[in-house]
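Folding Query — how this chain folds
Tokens — whole-number codes for backbone shape
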Amino acid sequence: MRIYRTKPTRSFTTVTNALVRDPSISWCASGVLMYLLSLPPNARADIRSLAGQRKEGRARITDALHDLEKAG
């Protein structure tokens, strides 16, 4: 599989590789974190709205948020 990298011109979020590669959080928690970081500064999100964005469901989102809280 080839990986194509392009220079974004709008609507993008930049995070450090250390955050993406942190082994103390699950893949799901990493995805939730990336989504939350992409929201505007004063945006509000709850478990129900996060679960509605993807197919993981409320229990999985709750577990991901607990992983993130434990990781700090």
